[in-house]
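Data card: per-record layout.
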Amino acid sequence: MTATSALLGRPATNGTAPLIRVEDLKVWFPITHGLIVERHVGDVRAVDGISFDLRRGETLGLVGESGCGKSTTGRAIIQLYRPTEGRVLFEDVDLGSLGGSELRRMRRRMQMIFQDPYASLNPRMNVATIVGEPLEIHKIGSQAQRRERVRELLSIVGLNPDFAVRYPHEFSGGQRQRIGVARALAVDPDLIVADEPISALDVSIQAQIINLLERLQGQLGLTLLFIAHDLSVVRHISDRIAVMYLGRIVEIAPSRVLNSRPLHPYTVALLSAVPIPDPTVERRRRRIILRGDVPSPINPPSGCRFHTRCWLRERLGNPEICVQEDPALRELETGHTAACHFAEKVVDSAEQLQATGQEVPGTAASAGSAALATNGGAPPSSPPTPPIPPSAPQASPRAPGDSPA
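The structure for this 405-residue chain is written out next.
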């Protein structure tokens, strides 16, 4: 960063404590009935009791199906939505207790990149005004310093500084998203919430934005909450991954661990839908097809919220504990937590191995490998057909290109 950035210096921080702590966060949206006299008849439980922390300098990926509460979580963290219950602590400061000028001062340290790179930019403002607006709101620098800072930011995100006089409609989708990144970086925040910043972009542009965020994180020491559907993208950029289902977090683990050893049945199903760019591995995989639709967040199921679609519960004979008791998010391995009564049954199951592209004992792939070893490298005359477990869920031989995550 240049000398222009010196006026944006961050306050002294404690490098050991988590930057963000979310404690039992709930965000419910009321449902009312009546035109003259409104009556409260229910709530949409978008986020319904989640807890996690976000360490300084790390990237936490937040994944799940549409409607599971990912974006609501991100907006609640930076207080665009006020939590119904629970707390969001930014360096031990409860953001829910702040308001007015105090909250505005804290928001200088946390910014958001929105999903739609066009709707989030004011079409009546040029790029210089859009990117410089946070500097003006927080009264940072003089007019000349702000102009120089805008040019610096455009250069950082890979845009020509002379483009500052243009308007959003004059840019492509990838360029507009870069403008959104520049605006988020304007006040040199500690935390950036990236709400599906690449979902509306082409694949080649997605790679550019991901590489840009990784480069900026290394240069500026940013902390990222990266919200996305695509597990392959989240795996690439994240240090840890949290999986959400129907307003709850069902699994948290380091990125590599979650992708190689998922412990929640829902995570296994999501990973089975992500294509692996290896034809040999992809041929032996089977996608887990979840039965039924996602339940309504207005009236979620009792007990485990995933039990209505869970392939593991069906295999175990539909135990009643899944309906009666809500499973706690418990640590099963170091740094790896999952909310499932029978998470231990997932370990080394055929579904887990197939979803992650590993060989399943007793299948054609593993039997063929053994035969090659015993026959001195010669292939077996007729490799055995992989057995299909009688209680396995319905599955298709290949995963489609689109992931439900």
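Known properties of this structure: Residues 260-395 form one domain. The CA atoms of residues 301 and 375 lie 54 Å apart.

See the next section for split statistics.
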